[in-house]
Design brief:
Elements lengths: L6 E3 H5 L5 H9 L5 E3 L6 E4 H14 L5
Antiparallel strand pairs: 1-3, 2-3
Length: 65
């Protein structure tokens, strides 16, 4: 899937059809392609790495979607 922005929040990604719960689980996975705002606030996924990461995680341990 191609994403419109280089970094996208969970809320923005849910608008593409991805599940909020699934994205929250991904954000907690080791090696997740995320950045957080100062103070540990909002989570942004690095979209250029997101599809590969979702595929890698799904092979290791299936997450709920």
């Amino acid at each position: 899937m191609a994403y419109p922005k280089q970094f996208m929040s969970i809320t923005e990604l849910t608008e593409t059809g991805l599940s909020r719960d699934f994205l929250k689980q991904l954000s907690r996975a080791e090696g997740a392609p995320i950045v957080r705002t100062l103070g540990g606030g909002k989570i942004y996924f690095k979209t250029s790495e997101l599809n590969d990461f979702m595929e890698e995680i799904s092979k290791k341990k299936p997450l709920r979607r």
